[in-house]
Amino acid sequence: MVEPPCKIKLLICGGGNGAHTLTGLASSRANVEVNVMSLFADEAERWRKTLGNDDFTVHFTEKDGSVTPIKSKPKIITNDPAQAVPGCNLIIFTVPAFAHEGYFKALAPYIEENAVVVGLPSQPGFQFQCVDLLGERGKKCAIVSFESLPWACRIMTFAREVKVLGAKDTLSAAIIMRKCKPQFEILPTIQYLLGPEPNLTQANNYLAINLLADANVHPPIMYGTWKDWDNKPMAEKPLFYQGLNEFCADLLSKVSYELMETAKAIEKECPVFDMKDVIHLHDWYKLNYKESISDDSTLLSCMKSNKAYDGLVHPMKETDDGKFVPDFKYRYMAEDMPFGFIVFRGIAQLAGVKTPAMDETIYWCQKIMGKEFLVDGELNGKDMNITRAPQRYNFKCIRDLVDLQ
């Protein structure tokens, strides 16, 4: 890792697990000044007051299982964009996709030319929304889209300490430069902030990142796990990834093949768009978690034997008698459908690809959510306006998506 040639004035948007982790890591680097902006309720004030003058600690779990404490402190923590944004040359979103719109609108009056805007992760449709909401000021800003968070991480004590359970081995990002002339090399600078893991690589284009997102995992697992649930509370919270069943693994594989077919159709229509980064989920796990997986023979075994997923359970709500029922309002559906699965489906629709596995998942999930996206095989439901599908932004064909690059 090489220190950037200029001072990095970093704005971290958010206050959750990812924001805590990035704040601690980035603040520990030389020649980096970190501002944190949270627009959620009084989160910024609580973080600022709770931390006070103390150091913030990241407990980083290394590959050998040892834990390294990293102590640091951000410059400011605020909910005021007028205080947080001016002067920042790197802006990283670590908030859920449903919150992106509010942050884009807060940034728009203050963002400066040649700033680099990063979604970590971006979640599908991030680029469409960024271009739409940053308007004229955004035309000289680069857009960077990461496929997922770099780590599995959990807040231990709000505003004070966070634990990294495991880091991915590699992580891919797409960069749309637009008219931006950044003060630093984008990917090496973000690598400097994160540390040696994961190893960051550049995807060939942003559509590949859109089709690689983590959101293709969560809805099928929710559907496959709970479709036959008898509505009786459970004594324990079931494991999310490591409790995977054969139906879930088969459905995930089918969805993955549909995304690969979509990528092939895009490349056939526009050969300039190299889509080879869109690989099967089984291969993705072997690439990104090769040090954490003890059995990589199948997709099912990859997920069940991944130590980075140790202890991660289904989102559940506790009943009055101490048992548990699934929380269908958790982000695995509330976010990953409108800002993930529906975007995949929208891109596939523009590419003319049939998606029976995606459709099966969407029909169940939208019924549970009380939403309507897919109707008779077409994305024209009454709730499409809350999604980031390309259809919402008036993209009519694959060529429209390619021209955004």
UniProtKB/TrEMBL annotation:
Source organism superkingdom: Eukaryota
Opine dehydrogenase domain ranges (all copies): 203-369
GO function terms (MF aspect): oxidoreductase activity
Gene3D superfamilies reported for this sequence: N-(1-d-carboxylethyl)-l-norvaline Dehydrogenase, domain 2 (1.10.1040.10), NAD(P)-binding Rossmann-like Domain (3.40.50.720)
Database matches in PANTHER family: BLR6086 PROTEIN, OPINE DEHYDROGENASE DOMAIN-CONTAINING PROTEIN
Record's protein name: Opine dehydrogenase,Octopine dehydrogenase,Tauropine dehydrogenase
Species, as recorded: Acanthosepion pharaonis
